[in-house]
């Protein structure tokens, strides 16, 4: 079973104050996860989590993570700007972008962020625009498939990200000649992995690569960035990852590969998004309509604009009816109101009997949820609310109003 982090009574109080739909985040859970991650990697002196801002680009959330000792991983100018304004200092910001406008390298250097080069070809542009920084990272792509035992987890050869081993060695050689002093290696080879073996296997590949690269280039390797990719148990029958076991798995490989090669001072970085935040967010929505045709449709006031993953990837998100959690089971589709037939949060899902007016919570929406939202059908973005540690709730982003939708238009007078 998946239990929401909020009780029915708490949620009733919140929905009396804030209209649905909205995203609700759990401060206590966020802090606990951050602490567990730090505990798992406490064996590595320089360990740092650079939270992937793209997962939940909400200042109040980033502040909580900052208080827990995390940095941020940014992918664009505005993410950099937000992080800088939030008081993340240079070494607390990783810039893991791709296909990057040169002006963004210039800004990243201005605020002292660590640049993670996606392509060998980016080196010339970086040199010509921002210049070569003292600390720099390169993103690796081994090609082929990424396998764990007999399972194919992903296909790096089909991924647009990162550079080949030969390119990475060439980039390190040139960057060193151009004045770079400290180096990092980064890779993201599989997404939403629900296994404790992903990071240790990735670490083995990157640590072996690191030994070879240092041997061939003589660079001072400062860090290895395992990036994101640790998943969560979206389905109740899936077993949650054990971050302590993951940390211990990486430590074992570190001691087998890096320490004997004289690289026992290398810092481990992570750029987790989903693992840090997904379980600590709920999309709260109310049932507006019921429709019986060839199926039973339950129409709710949220739609794919609030949570794109089910419509985009067919991703499973568990749903709880807060008003009738133990009702008689029915097979239904839970749908939004977009003029798109993929606007469905659940298809042929067995759920307890649902009535108009019931409050449903869609689980695990804390990462890549609100942030992937859009405005199709002139739908307005929802609010975000934080359930604070003391049990009170606080609006951390208001919902959009029509004025916001019209704000960027010319030749249209909203006031008329
Ligand atoms: C460069 C980079 N780092 C980290 C992440 C975070 O990944 P996840 O949320 O799966 O941990 C992403 C996600 O897209 C990414 O592109």
Commentary on this structure:
It is a single chain. With 416 residues, this protein is of the alpha/beta class. It folds into two domains: 27-278, Alpha-Beta Barrel (TIM Barrel); 279-406, Beta Barrel (Lyase, Ornithine Decarboxylase, Chain A, domain 1), CATH 2.40.37. Helix content is 29%, strand content 24%. It is built from twelve helices and 19 strands. It has helices at residues 8-17, 27-40, 59-67, 77-85, 102-110, 122-129, 165-177, 198-217, 243-258, 274-277, 309-313, 402-406, and strands spanning 22-26, 48-52, 71-74, 93-95, 114-117, 135-139, 146-148, 151-154, 182-186, 220-225, 267-270, 281-292, 296-300, 319-321, 329-335, 344-352, 359-362, 383-387, 393-397. The strands form three sheets. Strands 1, 12, 13, 14, 15, 16, 17, 18 and 19 form a nine-stranded mixed beta sheet that branches. Strands 2-3-4-5-6-9-10-11 form an eight-stranded parallel β-barrel, surrounded by five helices. A two-stranded antiparallel sheet has the order 7-8. A hairpin with a 2-residue loop joins strand 7 (146-148) and strand 8. 42% of the residues are buried. The mean pLDDT is 97. The structure holds pyridoxal-5'-phosphate.
Notable characteristics:
alpha/beta; 9-stranded mixed sheet; Lyase, Ornithine Decarboxylase, Chain A, domain 1; TIM Barrel; 29% helix; 12 helices
